[in-house]
């Protein structure tokens, strides 16, 4: 395993694997140094291709790269053609060695699996995606693959690195979107030092959505991409690379 690829500790089913990248161990130059996996951020395409090739060499298959647009569309990767780049912010599959991938640089990656390891999902959950229901749509897409009510399996979640609650300042309009949906989420916003601004806890907001969908076993949620310079952070650096969070079903 090379420097950029890590496996977080959480109680996965035996046949599920996940990996997370940081910004180290690749070929990109500043300000994308060095393991940038995003093709849309202005980096040298050759460097990104080398980084993706290096990543691929450590995986059982090519990741399914999404064209992420901060929405709630879920791509069913059981029907992936092996080359297209679907426009979606989440993906699900039941196929073995189908590697789901979510790119981030402050937004929250959410990795999901049924407890029996037969269905997995991954979601790109920035505040816009959370507000539009990307978590709900992903969980629903996973459950739709469970044939009958008797076969409904509990789902567990892992929250990857995202901007932390002491670094994520938002306006009142953002807070209103969440509080209008669920007044309980007011606890996820604290007044900032600037008038009309609030510090948002994206981890708490995601947990609220997950628990409302019956996903109670939630892990991770303790990193801050803004404060930890081992991670890419769009809000901190503006021009920067992208990390990836990956999940797949093993043979």
Sheet having the most strands? 6 strands, mixed
Percent helix: 10-25%
Low-confidence stretches: none
| Count of domains | 1
Radius of gyration: 17 Å
How many DSSP-defined strands?
14
Please tally the helical runs, counting DSSP H or I stretches of 4 or more residues: 6
The helix/strand order is EEHEEEEEEHHEEHEEHEHE
What is the general shape?
A: globular
Q: State mean pLDDT (0 to 100 scale).
A: 95
CATH fold node name: CNF1/YfiH-like putative cysteine hydrolases
- Strand ordering within the main sheet: 4-5-8-7-9-13
CATH superfamily: CNF1/YfiH-like putative cysteine hydrolases
Q: How large a portion of the residues is in β-strands, by DSSP E?
A: 15-25%
Under the CATH scheme, the architecture is 4-Layer Sandwich
CATH class: Alpha Beta
Task: Walk me through what this model shows.
This protein is an alpha+beta fold and 251 residues long. The protein has helices spanning 45-56, 127-132, 134-143, 172-181, 202-212, 234-237; strands spanning 5-6, 16-21, 63-64, 74-76, 90-93, 99-104, 108-114, 120-125, 155-159, 169-171, 189-191, 197-200, 217-220, 243-249. The strands form 3 sheets. A 6-stranded mixed beta sheet has the order 4-5-8-7-9-13. A hairpin with a 5-residue loop joins β7 and β8 (120-125). The longest helix is centred in the N-terminal third of the chain and has 12 residues, at 45-56. The mean pLDDT is 95.
